[in-house]
């Protein structure tokens, strides 16, 4: 479900982090748009994409651990 645009404080609440952390994420590469007035807006889907970019490495590690555990259990 598309949720649209929000200010950093709102998307921080959505992500369950502080506004300070959200601003750090913006500096670290979270996509955003800045209006001529200076207002920063972020799409909720961009927050999801940003967080998913960290998840994939962990998923690969979890898959590897599960595979090794399965092989050990089979022997």
Profile the largest sheet: 3 strands, antiparallel
Shape: rod-shaped
Q: Enumerate the strands of the largest sheet in spatial order, edge to edge or round the barrel.
A: 1-3-2
Q: What would CATH call the class?
A: Mainly Alpha
Mean model confidence by pLDDT = 89
SSE order:
EHHEEH
Strand content: 5-15%
Report the helical percentage. Answer: 55-70%
Query: Kindly, what is the distance between the CA atoms of the first and last residues, rounded to a whole number of angstroms?
Result: 45 Å
Structural summary, described in words:
The protein is mainly alpha-helical. The protein has one domain (5-74): Arc Repressor Mutant, subunit A. Helices cover 65% and strands 11% of the residues. The chain is built from three helices and three strands; from the N terminus they run E-H-H-E-E-H. It has helices at residues 8-15, 19-28, 44-74, and strands at residues 5-6, 33-34, 40-43. It has a three-stranded antiparallel beta sheet. A hairpin with a 5-residue loop joins strand 2 (33-34) and strand 3. The longest helix has 31 residues, at 44-74. The relative contact order is 0.15.
Q: What are the SSEs and their pairings?
A:
Blueprint (H helix, E strand, L loop, with lengths): L4 E2 L1 H8 L3 H10 L4 E2 L5 E4 H31 L1
Antiparallel strand pairs: 1-3, 2-3
Helix pairs in contact: 1-2
Summarize the structure.
By secondary structure, the chain is mostly helical. It has helices spanning about 10-15, 20-30, 45-75; strands at about 5, 35, 40-45.
């Amino acid at each position: 479900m598309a949720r649209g645009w929000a200010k950093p404080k709102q998307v921080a609440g959505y992500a369950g982090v502080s506004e300070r952390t959200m601003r750090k994420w913006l500096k670290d590469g979270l996509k955003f748009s800045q209006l001529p007035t200076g207002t920063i807006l972020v799409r909720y889907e961009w927050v999801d994409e940003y967080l998913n970019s960290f998840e994939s490495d962990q998923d690969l590690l979890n898959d590897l651990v599960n595979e090794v555990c399965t092989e050990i259990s089979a022997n």
